[in-house]
Amino acid sequence: MQLGMIGLGRMGGNMAKRLAEDGHDVRTFDPKVESTASSLAELRDQLERPRAFWTMVPAGAITEATFRELLELAAPGDTIVDGGNSNFRDSQRRHEEAAARGVHFVDVGVSGGIWGLEVGYCLMAGGDDEAVTRIEPILTTLAPDDGYAHVGPSGAGHFVKMVHNGIEYGLMQAYAEGFEVMRRSEFGLDLHEISGIWRYGSVVRSWLLELLHAAFEQDGSDLEGIRGYVDDSGEGRWTIAEAIAEDVPVPVITAALFARFASRQEESFAAKVNAALRNQFGGHAVRAVEHAKAQESDPRA
Fold first, then answer.
1. Which run of H or of E encompasses 264?
2. pLDDT surpasses 90 at 13
3. Among the listed residues 19, 36, 2, the one whose alpha carbon sits nearest the alpha carbon of residue 110
4. How far apart are CA 200 and CA 260, in angstroms?
5. Could you give the percent of the chain with pLDDT greater than 70?
6. Which helix H or strand E contains 242, and what residues bound it?
7. C-beta separation of 121 from 112 below 8 A
8. What is the pLDDT of residue 109?
9. pTM of the full predicted structure?
10. Exposed, middle or buried by CB within 10 Å (0-12, 13-18, 19+), for 88?
11. Contact 40, 54 (CB under 8 A)
């Protein structure tokens, strides 16, 4: 099948390679990477009608701008696929706007990271039956066996991927907390060894655990080369917002997101308030900021 891939970053580039290796005719556009086209308009002209465009660009303003330009360039019967981590509400809106012009829109949640080229990507597609069926040859090539499903109507693909990523937050945080408890214990445990044996027969074995074992192998059991700063790309926040709207308690995912927020603080003002209050009502000792550090941060000291 012929496809125009837009965005050749870590995910899009590998997806294009996997498709080409399976015999698909892949045309590409990325202003920062060598591509078959130098613009979206040129990419359109390289494709035969009805065309299929697949975008793999960051969620937000870039996705919106790309969608808007494609909608102007596309002809009735063409298909636009968003494989990024867009908010499912945006995908529902884009589906309606595209349908008004006779253009198909499919939202596909994609999981697999940098390993997808080798092992395939788990794909969660949302959209009309006709549109999803048309791009099915692409989906079956990208996914491993039993790794693809048409999960529902417009927005469902990105909704399921959103919840997937919320669950991922909780799993990662549980591993993080458990390994810190072991690291601080009196036993001098070899975390690399433990993560290794847990991969076999343990009830907590998983691909994430295999990746953690690989990280220990690469950076040592203390992960010395990695700063404890954890970003988020929005899906955890959206999952929690939807859970609130649906009156569903999600304490694990919420705590995991807040733990990421805490990881970005050099110094927690909330912790300072707690310490000050304990001192005020109970006379509990506080730890003063070291004078040397204060001098470093204030040249007037």
1. none
2. yes
3. 19
4. 29
5. 96
6. helix 235-245
7. yes
8. 98
9. 0.91
10. buried
11. no
